[in-house]
Amino acid sequence: MPRSPSAQQILDCALNLADNCGWEQLHLFEVANKLGVGLDAIAKHFRQKDDLVEAWFDRADLALLERGKGGDLTALNAEKRLEELLMAWLGALAPHRSVTGQMLLYKLEPGHFHLQVQGLLRVSRTVQWWREAAQRETLHLCRIAEESLLTGAYLRTFVHWLRHPTEEEADLRALLRRQLRCGPLILLLRR
């Protein structure tokens, strides 16, 4: 009797398989076969294929939060803390960048309205953790404005990162800095 794989092992196996076949072509029965288990072992951790996507982005969120523990961050200004944290988030996704983009396209398919709603909630959740890890203390209208502007910076940077896989990290950081220095956002970050 094979040992039941952990959620992390299932996710890693799925990502590695998807690197070869693509996210759309990945089937959960193939993941089970590769791990030498039945589909029930997969279902124990993931009710559907999209739960793997959520787990993948949860892993990136955890990398961001882990980076937030760095003692060196407290000495940095808000803009630099946000930069470091988002780079840690992107770094966690980097080993499977192409599959990450395919996952997003899968969520955006017209028939996947329920996944699109989950995607919006995911963006909101990641931006919330990003703000928290950066120790942002803005309140009320300033917090709402900051969240909205940070969401735009996050999405523009993430899409750029997906579309330019060969870009140097320094160039990506420069783009992110420009996003964080947009007129109204820089005023909020300097409060």
TrEMBL record:
The keyword DNA-binding applies. Keywords: DNA-binding. Residues 27-46 bind DNA. Gene3D superfamilies: Tetracycline Repressor, domain 2 (1.10.357.10). It comes from the Bacteria. The keyword DNA-binding applies. Residues 4-64 form the HTH tetR-type domain. This is TetR/AcrR family transcriptional regulator. It comes from Metapseudomonas resinovorans.
